[in-house]
Amino acid sequence: METETVKTNQIEVFKIAESILQEMPLTLTKIQAGFPSPAEDYQEERLSLDKELIRNRSATFFARVTGNSMINSGIYDGDLVIVDRVLEPKANSVLLCVMDGEFTLKKVKKIGQDMYMMPENPDYAPIKISSENDFRVWGVVTYSIKKHY
What is the set of domains in the chain, with CATH numbers? Predict the structure, then answer.
């Protein structure tokens, strides 16, 4: 398996050159997160996570998150995010930005005439984007994957 890796102090970004996700079983029974339901009607089909999570294969990258500035968007230290470089950002999109050579996950917001990278954690301050900064949106975060065990 070949990978392309870009690493900074904050985020490691990598692209899988070939699919490593195989089709896996998917239960057709809806799983309750409230009261239990009988499992006697259990059925399954096959699910490809590639097809489910990746829209634009050649423009999709994975990134490992470091830090807690996006916790109110459900993205935590150690999570893996899927980033699509083709998608146009929408209002409130979580973006993988590059500012002065460093990757960071933030939302971008215009306040008056100024643009800011906005954290999703009240412990962090917005970062003003000035004309002196080398700033660009590198991609749009489409999914985050977290370990529960």
Answer: 3-18+48-145 (2.10.109.10)
